[in-house]
Amino acid sequence: MKHVHKFLAASVALALIGCGGTGGNSKPATGPVLNINPRVEAIVAVQRTNLMHPDMWTDQQLQDPTNMAVKADLFDQTVFGVVDPTNVATGEQVIFQLVNYTTDSSGNPVRHIIPGVVFTTSDFNSTYGVLASNTGQLTVSNNATSQPLFVTASYTGGTFSAEYDIKIRQVRLLGNVLDENTNQAAALAGCQVQFYNAANALVDTVTVAFDGSFRASVPTNTTSFTVNGDSLPSSYYHSFTYNTLRYDVSVVSCFAPAPSGLQVGTTTLPGTILVTPRVNGVPTPSSTGCQQGPVTKH
Predict the structure, then answer these.
(1) Where does the pLDDT of residue 33 fall: very low under 50, low under 70, confident under 90, or very high at 90 and above?
(2) CA-angle at 268, arms to 255 and 227, nearest 5°
(3) C-beta of residue 94 within 8 angstroms of C-beta of residue 138
(4) Residues pairing with 151 in the sheet
(5) Beta partners for residue 217, in sequence order
(6) How far apart are CA 71 and CA 69, in angstroms?
């Protein structure tokens, strides 16, 4: 039932960016950009050895996943961006940040990193990694755990916490969930993608970042995936397209195929998950990717 816990955490919505996201907050803080409650997020800790031009960027720029110039300059673009903290793997390095969001003139989310935060972890003995309290950088050990851990950010009297999980090193599967009409993340931040094995057993749930991206940590026996319909905004059908086929997420086992031959390491999903906006009076579009009859989920 761990995926249910993740959904509950993700459904603490931020009004400006749809479904919400990972983490939670216990008390609002104050400050110049804190017009909505901040939350704890994690990003990939970019190593300068991964950059094509390592001296071009400051540490602050490398810690801003909205900086597309940095992303374009990376030798390996798969190492840059927001990561679901419940999908951290052994041997990785991530940076926890306290952030909040506003919108620009076009209604797109603008991510603000809040400075001067002190981070602590429930992993008091650093069994599963070493956390730098002033920067939020977590260097993960080789010890995995099935028990959730928690990081807490303290800022001007407020505390904000998020769960993080340390998994064994497996497949790092990258992908995107976007609006089918606009090809933008729109209100889909905080929604979830679920992964299954050949026995239709759930093997991982990942939360979508503000830009529509996700970084799942899945076992090599993963065979399929779907979008968690309960995590979608009401303005979207429980339906998505992937590689030109449509899948109805309200139908049991109506899953899209994961890449075959998955191996430990980083793999990018060979297609974008496109979620369909609702049209008044128009029913859910018919599925073309399902191989079974329409048995609805309960």
Answers:
(1) very low
(2) 30
(3) yes
(4) 121, 162
(5) 172
(6) 5
> Could you tell me the domains of the chain?
2-167 (no CATH), 171-277 (2.60.40.10)
| Tokens 């340390």, residue located | 166
Q: Which residues contact 120 (CB under 8 A, 6 or more apart)?
A: 131, 133, 151, 152, 154
* Nearest Cα to Cα of residue 178 among 279, 269, 69: 269
> How many CB atoms neighbour CB 243 within 10 A?
13
Q: Are 85 and 162 in contact (CB under 8 A)?
A: yes
- Position 94 scores a pLDDT of 97
**Pairwise pLDDT comparison (24 vs 149), residue with the higher score:** 149
Q: What tens digit of pLDDT does each residue of 236-281 get?
A: 999 999 999 999 998 888 999 999 999 999 999 999 999 999 999 9
Give which of 182, 174, 126 is closest to 149, Cα–Cα: 126
Three-state SS at 164: strand
SS3 assignment, position 98:
strand
Neighbours of 77 (CB within 10 A): 14
